[in-house]
Design a protein that fits this description.
mainly alpha, 72% helix, elongated
Length: 156
């Protein structure tokens, strides 16, 4: 249960916190930009993660081209360039998908852990049938009362 609570909190609180600060101060974009500098420690890992599901026309180094556009000649600039926020959004989607997958998996395990199989005996079947019959009778009585109230209201 603790595992489920942790992942649910990561989804509700953690992702909500990041989105709020992204809206106010572009936290994710600025942090991602600092992580994806070619000399950064995790540059290769982040590049591999982002280019994994993208097509062949995806250019990872695009935001450096856009920031340093005046220093690049026309031949080095890619027309298929995306802004740096696009790369940040891709990183955000990877993080959100990871949290959601773990949240779902922990919920599924939690449900399996709490699941109980009831031994079906003749007694259980009889109790179910009697209970169901009582519920049907109760519903019929309630419907009859409603009809009587409706008739009284119409007669007035």
């Amino acid at each position: 249960m603790a595992n489920f609570i942790i992942w649910r909190a990561a989804y509700n609180v953690g992702l909500g916190y990041l989105l709020r600060h992204q809206s106010k101060s572009f936290l994710i974009t600025s942090y991602f930009t600092s992580l994806t500098h070619p000399e950064a420690t995790f540059y290769g890992i982040i590049k591999a993660l982002l280019t994994l599901n993208m097509g062949s026309d995806y250019d990872f180094k695009v935001f450096y081209y856009l920031l340093l556009l005046p220093f690049y000649t026309h031949s080095t600039y890619s027309n298929k360039a995306m802004p740096k926020a696009f790369n940040s959004w891709l990183a955000w989607r990877i993080l959100a998908d990871w949290v959601l997958a773990n949240d779902f998996f922990s919920y599924f395990i939690f449900c399996l852990r709490m699941f109980e199989v009831v031994e079906i005996t003749p007694f259980v079947v009889i109790c179910y049938m009697v209970s169901n019959r009582k519920n049907i009778r109760t519903r019929e009585r309630e419907r009859e009362r409603e009809r009587e109230r409706e008739r009284e209201r119409i007669d007035r």
